[in-house]
Design goal:
Layout lengths: L10 H9 L2 E7 L3 H12 L4 E4 L15 E2 L11 H17 L5 E10 L6 H14 L9 E4 H7 L8 E11 L2 H13 L4 E3 L2 E9 L2 E9 L5 E11 L5 H7 L8 E12 L8 E5 L5 E7 L2 E5 L3 E2 L11 H14 L12 E10 L13 E5 L5 E5 L5 H20 L22 H15 L6 H11 L3 H10 L5 H16 L5 H8 L2 H4 L1 H19 L3 H19 L7
Parallel strand pairs: 1-2, 1-10, 2-7, 4-12, 10-18
Antiparallel strand pairs: 3-6, 4-6, 5-6, 8-9, 9-10, 11-14, 11-15, 11-16, 12-13, 13-14, 17-18
Helix pairs in contact: 2-6, 2-9, 3-4, 10-11, 12-13, 13-16, 16-17
C-alpha cells in the first residue's frame, strides 16, 4: 500500500489547496468517528475535507479502554441491537487492521454475590456469541474454579466460583484513528490537524462551509462545501450552539479514568473483566511491559480541554484492584502513568451515568448541519455509514447524484499489507525481530513496531539505516519521528510521544530518555527557534507529571 505524504512541513500548501477548492463535505473532528466518516465518504466518491482543532485523536479517541469489544455489559441492559452491531464489527475491524486490532482472551471471574451468576453468565455469553457471530476457538467457555485459578492465580480463591472465558480484541485507539484518516487520503480526502472551526458559512440560510483558524500560524481560512458534518465528540453541543441549533437532546459527558502499572506490580496472565464493590465492572489488561486498569464512569462538567485523573479517581481504581486480587497490594506510588477521557453520551432524564445508552445519535439542524454523537469505538464504521447515508440521500434529492453504497468493510487500513490473519502478523513480528536483534533489540521492540505500524515498519527501518546515532533506541525513535513527520502529520513532540507511539501511557520512562534528542530533531525538521523548543519541553514535563505523579502533595 502506497504511503502518501501527509506532513505539516507543507502545511501552508495544504491550506491553500483546501481553501481553493469546493468540497462536497467538510468533516469537523479528527477522532475515530470523523476519520471513519472521511474514509466512508471519500471512498464513495465525495470530495472531503476533515478539520481537527487539536491533534488527530487528541480527544476521546486516544483515551478509551483501547478495546474493540462487543459490549457484554449491554446485555444486562437488554440492548441486544448494540451488542449485535458492535459484536459483529469487531471481526470486521480486526480483518481491516490485524496488526492494530489484536485478539485478546477475556476472563470473567464469577464470585460470591457478584454481578454475574454462573447460569446467567453461561446463557449471556452464549447469546453474546450468537449476536456477535463468534465462531471457532473464540466461542465462550465456562470454567470451573480450578480451571479459572490455573489461568489466573491472582484471583480470590475463597470467593471464586468459576469463570466465563470469551474473546475480545485490543487496539491502540489513537493509531487506529490516524490510520483510518491516512487511508481516506488514498481516496482523495484532505485532512488537517490544528485547524479550529470558528464559524459556519451560509448560503440561503443553509450551511455551505466553514471559517477556520490555523492554530499554528493564527491565520484564518475558509472552506466552501455542500454539506458539513460535526463529529466533534464532547464538543458537538458547542458547534450546535455556534449554529444556533442546540435544541432537544443534548450531550451528557462522563469521565473515564485508567491507571497504568508496571507489569510486575500487577502480573495478570490475560485480560480480566471483574466486579468491584459498588456493583460496576472493571478491566485489567496486560500490554507488554505494563498492565492498565479502568475505568471510572462519573459525571463531568469541567474543562473539556484538560481532563485529568485526580487522586480520588486513582484511589477508587486501586481499591477495586486490591479487592479482586487479594495478593496484590497496589499503592498510589505504584502508578507509572494514567489517562482520563470523556464519553459524549446522549442525556436521558432520570438515568444514571452507567445506565445511559452507548448508542450514537444523529442531529440535523434547520440549516442543514449534521451532527453525530454518542456511540462506541468499536462501532465507528457503522456510525460513519449511517451518517454518510444521510448525505447520499440528500445528494440524490438535491443534485441528482447517486453515490456508491458503503464498502468500508473491504478497505484495508494503512499498514495492513499482505496481512489476512493475525498469524501473518505474528510471522512478521518474528521476521522483524530477526532483522533487528543483531543491533541489540528485543522481541518486544519488534512487537512494538509491528503492532503500531504494520508493514509501514519497512519505512521506519529504512530511516533507521540512514541515521547515524550511537544509542540504538534514540536512532530508532528518530526513525519513527521521521516517519511521523513525513506521513502522519506530527507537528510537535507531544503528537509523537502521546498519539503516534503511545509512549506516555505504555512506556513513560522512554520519554525521559528520549526527550532531548527528539526535541532537537523536531527543531531541526521544523526550523523553530529555541523558545519553541523550551515551550515544548515544559509541556512534556508537565504532561509527565500530570499523568504519573499521584503523591498527596501534588498541586
Amino acid at each position: 500500500m502506497k504511503n502518501i505524504k501527509f506532513t505539516n512541513l507543507e502545511r501552508q500548501k495544504t491550506i491553500d489547496t483546501i481553501e481553493g477548492e469546493d468540497f462536497d463535505l467538510v468533516v469537523i473532528g479528527g477522532g475515530i468517528t470523523g476519520g471513519g466518516i472521511a474514509l466512508d465518504a471519500a471512498s464513495r466518491g465525495l470530495k472531503v475535507a476533515l478539520l481537527e482543532k487539536g491533534d488527530f485523536a487528541s480527544g476521546t479517541s486516544s483515551k478509551s479502554t483501547k478495546l474493540i469489544h462487543g459490549g457484554l455489559r449491554y446485555l444486562k441492559q437488554f440492548d441486544f441491537w448494540l451488542v449485535k452491531e458492535v459484536g459483529s464489527e469487531r471481526a470486521i475491524v480486526h480483518k481491516l487492521a490485524p496488526h492494530l486490532v489484536l485478539p485478546e482472551k477475556m476472563l470473567l471471574p464469577l464470585i460470591e454475590n457478584g454481578s454475574y451468576g454462573k447460569w446467567l453468565t453461561s446463557i449471556g455469553l452464549k447469546v453474546y456469541d450468537i449476536l456477535a457471530q463468534v465462531s471457532g476457538d473464540d466461542k465462550r467457555k465456562m470454567l470451573k474454579k480450578k480451571e479459572a485459578m490455573k489461568l489466573e492465580p491472582l484471583l480470590p480463591k475463597k470467593i471464586l466460583n468459576g469463570a466465563g472465558y470469551y474473546a475480545e480484541y485490543r487496539t491502540d485507539d489513537a493509531r487506529l484513528t490516524v490510520e483510518t484518516i491516512k487511508t481516506s487520503l488514498l481516496f482523495g480526502a484532505k485532512a488537517l490537524n490544528y485547524a479550529k472551526v470558528n464559524e459556519f458559512l451560509y448560503v440561503n440560510e443553509k450551511v455551505a462551509g466553514v471559517k477556520a483558524t490555523d492554530e499554528i500560524t493564527g491565520k484564518e481560512f475558509t472552506i466552501k462545501s455542500k454539506y458539513v458534518i460535526s463529529a466533534a465528540g464532547p464538543w458537538v453541543d458547542e458547534l450546535r450552539s455556534l449554529n444556533n441549533s442546540k435544541k432537544g437532546k443534548q450531550l451528557h459527558l462522563t469521565k473515564g479514568v485508567h491507571l497504568v502499572f508496571p507489569y510486575e506490580k500487577l502480573p495478570v496472565k490475560q485480560s480480566v473483566y471483574f466486579d468491584i464493590p459498588d456493583g460496576r465492572m472493571m478491566f485489567a489488561i496486560p500490554r507488554g511491559k505494563i498492565t492498565y486498569v479502568g475505568t471510572t464512569d462519573t459525571n463531568y462538567n469541567d474543562s473539556k480541554d484538560n481532563v485529568t485523573t485526580n487522586i480520588a479517581d486513582a484511589i477508587y481504581l486501586i481499591s477495586a484492584v486490591n479487592n479482586m486480587f487479594p495478593s496484590i497490594d497496589l499503592e498510589l506510588g505504584d502508578i507509572v502513568s494514567s489517562w482520563a477521557g470523556l464519553r459524549p453520551l446522549i442525556h436521558e432524564e432520570g438515568k444514571s451515568t452507567s445506565e445511559l445508552s452507548r448508542k450514537d445519535e444523529i442531529f440535523v439542524s434547520d440549516t442543514g448541519l449534521i451532527s453525530i454523537a454518542g456511540g462506541k469505538l468499536t462501532g465507528y464504521r457503522k456510525m460513519a455509514e449511517r451518517v454518510v447515508d444521510r448525505i447520499a440521500k440528500r445528494m440524490e434529492e438535491e443534485y441528482e447524484t447517486e453515490l456508491k453504497d458503503c464498502f468500508t468493510e473491504k478497505i484495508f487500513l494503512c499498514g495492513n499489507e499482505d496481512f489476512r490473519k493475525f498469524k501473518h502478523v505474528k510471522k512478521y513480528i518474528t521476521e522483524i525481530y530477526n532483522r533487528i536483534k543483531d543491533d541489540g533489540f528485543t522481541e518486544h521492540d519488534a512487537w512494538f513496531l509491528v503492532t503500531n505500524y504494520g508493514k509501514q515498519t519497512e519505512v521506519i527501518l529504512d530511516n533507521y539505516l540512514k541515521l547515524v546515532e550511537k544509542d540504538k533506541y534514540v536512532r530508532l525513535a528518530k526513525a519513527e519521528l521521521t516517519f511521523g513527520i513525513d506521513y502522519e502529520m506530527v507537528q510537535n513532540p507531544m503528537d509523537f510521544f502521546i498519539r503516534r507511539t503511545g509512549r506516555l501511557y505504555f512506556d513513560i520512562d522512554s520519554i525521559r530518555r528520549l526527550m532531548n534528542p527528539i526535541l532537537k530533531e523536531c527543531q531541526n525538521r521544523f526550523g523553530v527557534p529555541d523558545k519553541t523548543v523550551e515551550d515544548w519541553k515544559k509541556t512534556l514535563e508537565a504532561d509527565l507529571k500530570e499523568h504519573s505523579d499521584f503523591s498527596l502533595t501534588r498541586d
